[in-house]
Design a protein that fits this description.
The complex is a heterodimer of chains A (703) and B (68). Chain A is an alpha+beta fold and 703 residues long. Chain A contains 21 helices and 25 strands. The two termini of chain A are 61 Å apart. By secondary structure, chain B is mostly helical. Chain B has one domain (17-67). In chain B, 63% of the residues lie in helices and 0% in strands. Chain B has three helices and no strands. Chain B has helices at residues 16-36, 41-50, 56-67. In chain B, helix 1 crosses helix 3 (56-67) and helix 2 (41-50) runs antiparallel to helix 3 (56-67). The chains are: A alpha+beta (703), B mainly alpha (68). The A-B interface holds A 234-244, 268-271, 489-492 and B 17, 20-21, 24-25, 27-28, 31-32, 34-37, 48, 51, 53-58.
């Protein structure tokens, strides 16, 4: 691994004796503005350097210039730039605009920072304090600022509030250990090597068959994650249900009816279920036991990123990647703390009273805040910690402009979770009633919240569900009104959704808190899975099956977990990144050799799946003319216009129909009731509309 | 060898996916017989095919077995 990113000439030898300003390097433009505003008291001057906005001001006789990157502006790439060649084991760091067409602005950012670095005497790294932020800061200081990654100072903060930023810049520290940056850079290299080699191997395998090229990717984290989905999908597709019977009784006591179920919840034979029904019908139940128990339900811990993503998906149906995006926006608006954290703890150093004071000015939270401040209660802490940042919490500041629906909801969730942590444990009473009907045991449960505690603060997210217990006491009798026997079948396992897949990745130690959600989005965008309930596509299965057969490490959790553990060692200064990269390259080489040796077979599997997906993509439904073909959307090679044609065209079926040339077409679930031709939804205009594709349909209209 | 159900390559008469589905289908039959007292293999296949919980690969094997 070498550095191709050019370094700026070092202008200032010893900052202590040279003049010049302090250059503050931030990760994002919004953060740069906040830093400048906080340090200058809102009196910084904005100017343009190389088309990017920078802020300058004087403070205590010292000149400051605050500039920013836009996330990563350097990335690793293959110096050979031969897209068809693999394996690739030599990678270099480049300005991102040289390796990604869509990253043109990276060049301007680098040019601006390089220009500003020439006049700087002192450098402050104010990028986010985590692996990615350290990597971004390290690369900027090394490449754009002329090797200043060692001498720079570090500003550490977890919120972008004025108070936190001032405190942080009041106690700047020398850039200490660079473990995070080294681990981050190693992770980029490893992921690039895995991704580029495996993806090239897979994408090119169908080319050997003379077929079209399509990007088929698989990576170090993507492989095992797709493996989880495929394993579950297989269980679902192979599933054979088995029957059981549920016996439920309706009982009556003093004119009030209640239900109870047979103690054996799943009766495995129909005969036994019928026997119970016959024996209990018209009988009398004797209440043999009423057990009441009190349980305490502790408040949930403060949010780590994973917890927030799961809860936002559960309560608000916001996908994890979107949650992270919104949370980053809320952080940049100084409304919440830094979201990329594993911590479930709020350290004593946080000024919680100040945050509560801020929240108390919002009407929706004022009652809860008043109670909390009056009680003097402490917040609950979770088990997980993160040395870099506390758990996600509100800053107590009010939005300076109205938030959109999802951002407002997510902020409300973060605030309520924070408040809930101060609440006392909730108390619930559980009632377990046991009844005997001629030797057959029935059970009924009741539950109610006797003291809501923190649940009141958590509001609608608490999911309180009370169930009225049966109105009976021990020794009492109740009449049997009816007994029903219901035939049921074991349910196949549920598919993962984005929230549960994220949880699975977390529990298996796959990926990082910052990348897991993006990985799920990649699986969807690559066409390996689809839908809210993540369903593996034929292409997804083809990739997994090819990997399982020829490169099993790629879809195993062991390898990627091992790499994560080694990288954590590098972060903590316990290992060298070169060793991790070397070991990964060795494993990748072994797997690639096997893939290369079986390229023909891999190509056949992938190619068949691509063809199958392409065929499904335009399919609208059965052909009502020839009755055996499939009507599909076809694009004319000559006119380039789209129309409906039958898959049996080569066999003589001439069913065809024109289609609107604008808008997105989506097939409806059911064919037209009037003529049985497929129906499509056309969207892209003001309102989506429904269209039967048959031009001669008797009921054709635009509803 | 081509899978009798889907035409994919497999080691035997069925591909890996359908071979496993067939194992599941055969394993569940005694449970259905016990549950209902008696049930012929044909009735069992019909029931499994009709059941919405049955996975698509298991259903495809059941249909192939019923029609063979």
């Amino acid at each position: 691994m070498t550095d191709r990113a050019p370094q700026s000439p070092q202008v200032w030898g010893d900052p202590a004796v040279s003049g010049g300003y302090t250059l503050v390097v931030c990760e994002k433009p919004d953060a740069a503005k906040r830093v400048a505003d906080a340090l200058s008291g809102g009196r910084s001057a904005a100017s343009q350097v190389e088309g990017t906005t920078v802020f300058s001001f004087a403070k205590d006789g010292e000149e400051f210039v605050v500039c920013s990157a836009q996330g990563h502006v350097y990335g690793v790439s293959d110096p050979a730039e031969e897209r068809t060649v693999y394996p690739v084991f030599d990678v270099e760091w480049y300005p991102l605009n040289l390796v990604e067409e869509e990253s043109a602005s990276a060049g301007r950012r680098i040019a601006a920072i390089r220009k500003l670095a020439a006049g700087a005497a002192r450098f402050v790294n104010a990028c986010d304090f985590d692996v990615e932020g350290e990597t971004i800061g390290f690369n900027l200081l090394r490449y754009a600022c002329g090797g200043k990654e060692k001498g720079a100072l570090r500003a550490r903060f977890s919120t972008l509030t004025e108070e936190d930023l001032r405190r942080s810049f009041g106690s700047l520290e020398p850039q200490a250990a660079d473990g995070l940056a080294r681990a981050g850079r190693a992770r980029h290299v490893i992921d690039f090597l895995w991704g580029i080699n495996l993806s090239r191997a897979l994408s090119q395998s169908p080319l050997g068959l003379g077929h079209r090229f399509r990007t088929v990717s698989v990576g170090r984290v993507q492989g095992p994650t797709l493996g989880f989905l495929a394993k579950r999908e297989r269980e679902i597709r192979e599933f054979v249900p088995t029957p059981y019977w549920k016996v439920t009784g309706v009982f009556e006591k003093d004119g009030r009816e209640f239900s109870a179920w047979y103690a054996e919840e799943k009766v495995r034979t129909k005969a036994q279920a019928e026997e119970v029904r016959a024996a209990c019908r018209g009988g009398t139940a004797v209440v043999v036991a009423v057990q009441r128990s009190q349980v305490q339900v502790s408040p949930p811990p403060p949010f780590s990123l994973g917890d927030l993503q799961k809860e936002a998906y559960r309560a608000l149906r916001i996908p994890p990647s979107r949650t992270l995006q919104i949370a980053e926006g809320l952080y940049l608006a100084a409304l919440i703390s830094y979201p990329r954290t594993s911590s479930q703890k709020l350290p004593p150093s946080l000024d919680l009273r100040r945050i509560l004071g801020g929240l108390g000015r919002v009407r929706a939270y004022s009652d809860a805040v008043e109670e909390i401040l009056k009680s003097g209660s402490r917040t609950v802490q979770g088990a997980r910690s993160d040395p870099a940042h506390p758990a996600i919490h509100p800053t107590g500041e009010r939005p300076q402009r109205p938030l959109d629906g999802q951002a407002a909801s997510l902020l409300d969730l973060v605030v309520r979770r924070f408040l809930a942590g101060f609440g006392p444990p909730a108390r619930r009473e559980l009632v377990d009633v046991s009844m005997d009907v001629g030797g057959h045991r029935f059970k009924a449960l009741g539950s109610r919240t006797t003291f809501p505690g923190w649940m009141d603060y958590y509001g609608r997210y608490a999911g309180r569900r009370d169930q009225e217990p049966p109105p009976v006491a021990e020794g009492e009798r109740a009449g049997v009104v009816s007994v029903t026997v219901e035939e049921k079948f074991e349910q196949r396992p549920p598919r993962y959704n984005q929230g549960s897949l994220l949880e699975k990745m977390e529990s298996e130690g796959i990926g990082t808190k910052a990348t897991r959600a993006d990985m799920i989005s990649t699986l969807l965008s690559r066409g390996y899975a689809s839908g809210d309930s993540l369903t593996v596509t034929d292409l997804g299965f083809a990739v997994v099956e090819a990997m399982e057969k020829y490169a099993p490490s790629v879809v195993s959790t062991e390898l990627t977990r091992h790499v994560e553990e080694m990288l954590e060692g590098v972060e903590e200064g316990a290992g060298g990144e070169a060793d991790v990269v070397r070991e990964t390259v060795r494993t990748a080489a072994e797997q690639l050799a096997e893939l290369f040796a079986n390229e023909g077979e891999v190509g056949r599997v992938i190619d068949a799946a691509i063809a199958g997906e392409a065929s499904k993509a335009g399919a609208l439904g059965g052909c009502p003319v020839c009755k055996s073909g499939t009507l599909r959307i076809v694009r004319s090679r000559t006119t380039k216009k789209r129309f409906v044609g039958c898959s049996n065209y080569p066999s003589g079926c001439r069913a065809s129909a024109p289609l609107p040339q604008r808008g997105t077409l989506r097939p409806a679930a059911k064919p037209c009731e009037k003529c049985s031709w497929p129906v499509v939804y056309v969207s892209g205009g003001r309102r989506p509309w429904k269209l039967c594709v048959n031009p001669d349909c008797p009921g054709r209209s635009k509803p | 060898m081509k899978c009798a159900v889907c035409g994919r390559e497999g080691a035997g008469k069925l591909c890996q996916r359908h071979a496993v589905a067939k194992e599941r289908l055969e394993a569940a039959y005694p449970l259905w017989v016990r549950a209902y007292g008696r049930m012929s293999w044909g009735d069992y296949l019909d029931n499994v095919i009709r059941n919405v919980q049955t996975g698509p690969w298991a259903k495809e094997v059941a249909e192939a077995l019923r029609d063979s």
